[in-house]
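Handout, page 2. Input:
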Amino acid sequence: MTKEMSNVEDKCRDFRNKFDALRREMGRVIVGHEDIVESVLVCLFCGGHVLLEGVPGLGKTLLVRTLSSVFSLEFRRIQFTPDLMPADIIGTNIVMEDQASGRRRFEFQPGPIFGQIILADEINRATPKTQSAMLEAMQEHSVTSRGQVRKLPEPFIVLATQNPIEQEGTYPLPEAQLDRFFFKLLVPYSNRQELRGIIDRTTTGADPQAGAVLNAEQIMQAQELVRHVVIAEHVQDYAIRLVLATHPQGEFAAETTNRFVRFGSSPRGVQALVLSGKVRAMLDERYHVSFGDIEASVLPALRHRILLNFEGQAEGVTTDEVLKQIIKTTPKALEQKLDVP
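Output:
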């Protein structure tokens, strides 16, 4: 074994050990939802944002708070309401007076978006005007005020929550904003055993706390390492064809796509598949992406990037059902060789 290969394996093993330590610490506070916890951690190491959808009381807010604890990052919470304004998020310029000279000047007061882990609680309760204030921050990691661009602290991740059952007084997230979320995760109800654990931790005076595992510098080093994981041409092509299969009437469109889908995934969808596949490869202590790594992220990476047509909505079809059919009908490899310019 070469020294370079041994070094790669050591890095993968170290990443896996840190990831397991993060899961253990979060498990001290979060009961169950192992898949959700893992997907959130995968998303963070990819440098993406997460949309958590679930009914009230399932621990979405607790999950975000616990995440900030295990990463030693600055946590900020924004409670989205219909009367929230963009300046309430990004900040505003206020008039300040120098007591010595009596001169007045404008001084920028940063809003709660200037954190590292941002909880956008019930994000769909804000108006479209206010939701649009998140677009630049989520994509560029910066905000612009009075023509001046201000960078946000790194690492920067937005974890937004929304309630799927209370639609009164809410505003559906525009597709442009949905597309900026790396993953959309559906938080399920807790089962019998998990409910017993929740009761034991919350009604007996116990107050479990998660300890810090990684700091900001270590997170960014891990994010950089992830991007250097190797993906073979045929595996990358599989991810591409999965995304192209969501485009109705396209070359690789599945039958269910042509019938039920109005618009398919953007290029951000295939970026999410490849990056999350790289993280999952390292969790298996591999430095190359497999077909299984790509498949594992299809639902969370693409479910919010597909827009159903009228027939799909009328028949009650979900985007998850469409994607499962796409996975089933898309071959992992094509006989013809991929043309590379």
